[in-house]
Design brief:
With 89 residues, the chain is an all-alpha fold. The protein has helices at 3-34, 38-62, 64-88. It has one domain (3-10, 24-80). It is built from three helices and no strands. The radius of gyration is 15 Å and the shape is elongated. 25% of the residues are buried.
Amino acid sequence: MTPALVTTLIALLIGFGAGLASFGALWISVRAYSQGNAARGLVLHLARAAVVVCGLVLAARSGAGPLLGALVGLLLARSVSMRLAGRAA
């Protein structure tokens, strides 16, 4: 395996992890908003946005391949989160 491919696969895993954390925090922040706890929801919303932005910026600094890998990881995490949310609803 070439170093570029390894870097892209690592970025995919990091994007997947960041995506799971982000969508998990989204679930919690929506519950906080719906229960009237706007401060907690806002903090979680800003934190999840910061995690995703930082992850994508770090991936972009490594090149196009890692950025694409991180984006694919985020999309995979979204798909998994949507399936889990469908079961929980």
